[in-house]
Write a structure and sequence with these properties.
Blueprint lengths: L4 E9 L2 E6 L2 E7 L1 H10 L5 E5 L2 H4 L5 H10 L4 E4 L5 H10 L3 E4 L1 H5 L2 H10 L4 E9 L5 E5 L4 E6 H11 L3 E6 L11 H10 L4 E4 L5 H9 L5 E4 L1 H8 L14 H6 L11 H10 L7
Parallel strand pairs: 1-4, 1-12, 4-5, 5-6, 6-7, 7-10, 10-11, 11-12
Antiparallel strand pairs: 1-2, 2-3, 7-8, 8-9
Helix pairs in contact: 1-3, 9-12
């Protein structure tokens, strides 16, 4: 039986951790270093750090943040956003990343996947796929936080990604991301069935039950979680002084952020998985 990884995702804009809905409407939650250290100390298996404005500026600007996180956090860390060349990847790895996620550059020039896998090893290269369900039921791949249409059908693209040498796929349901409505189980199941490399499900977790569903029904090898963990911290007894000077504090404290989300700790999720007979590191 596989051991499922639970991976907090940190969406970062400038110096701040942000969170949106369907990858838009970003609100500042705090400093990513604080959240990263908290998740590491509370049982995260890996971290996934994404520069959410990298496409706009055509570069990843997380190096300083990643370096600071890497000094405090000793679990694998994936960095994504704006990585377009082998030198970009090399710089991210030097800063402290263990793996990188590529999307736009892979779609623009698919050979980049093979070049990156050959240069750094397949296990270092993840391909991120942003999927949006179409009226006819097909899933198409997008870039730039779900804004840019590529015309690629997701399942065929996932197969191609594997053939080109990627070590993992992180599949994001743009429709579900940040909503708390649960992962798109059908999307994840179709991608998992199409490839042999590990598939990380992302987008929509609103409760620990959503996490167990995407693993048991859709065969996800790992899960990226964000809102339920971030809001779990905000509603806990952690020092909130940094939240009072930045971001939409009224939004964070009003409860509107939690309508479909059950604020949870990593231990809540992992104990739930174990209770469902799903192996994970507790």
């Amino acid at each position: 039986m596989k051991t499922v990884r639970v991976i907090p995702r940190l969406d970062i804009k400038g110096p701040n951790l942000v969170k949106g809905i369907r990858l838009e409407g970003l609100r500042v939650l705090g400093k990513p270093e604080v959240f990263a250290k908290y998740y590491y100390e509370n049982g995260a298996d890996e971290l996934f750090c994404m520069d959410v404005v990298a496409s706009l500026y055509e570069r990843n600007s997380l190096h300083d943040i990643i370096s600071r996180i890497a000094k405090e956090v000793h679990i694998p860390m994936t960095v994504g956003g704006g990585l377009r060349t082998l030198e970009d990847i090399r710089a991210a790895l030097r800063a402290g990343a263990d793996k990188v996620a590529i999307n736009t550059a892979a779609i623009k020039r698919s050979e980049f996947i093979t070049e990156a896998a050959n240069a750094f090893g397949a296990s270092t290269i993840l391909v991120a796929i942003e999927a949006i369900r179409q009226p006819d039921g097909r899933y198409l791949a997008f870039t730039d936080n779900g804004r840019e249409h590529t015309g690629l059908e997701v399942i065929q693209w996932a197969k191609r990604v594997e053939e080109l040498g990627a070590g993992e796929i992180v599949i994001t349901s743009v429709d579900r991301e940040g909503t708390g409505e649960g992962y798109d189980v059908q999307l994840t199941r179709e991608v998992s069935a199409a490839v042999k490399i590990p598939v990380i499900a992302h987008g929509g977790a609103g409760s620990p039950n959503d996490v167990s569903d995407v693993v048991s029904i859709a065969s996800a090898d790992a899960v990226c979680v964000a809102s339920i963990l971030h809001y779990g911290i905000i509603t806990s007894d952690i020092d909130k002084s940094e939240f009072l000077t930045e971001g939409n504090t009224e939004f964070l404290t009003s409860g509107r952020a939690y309508k479909k989300i059950v604020p949870s700790k990593l231990s809540d999720i992992k104990h739930h998985l174990v209770g469902k007979g799903i192996e994970c590191r507790v």
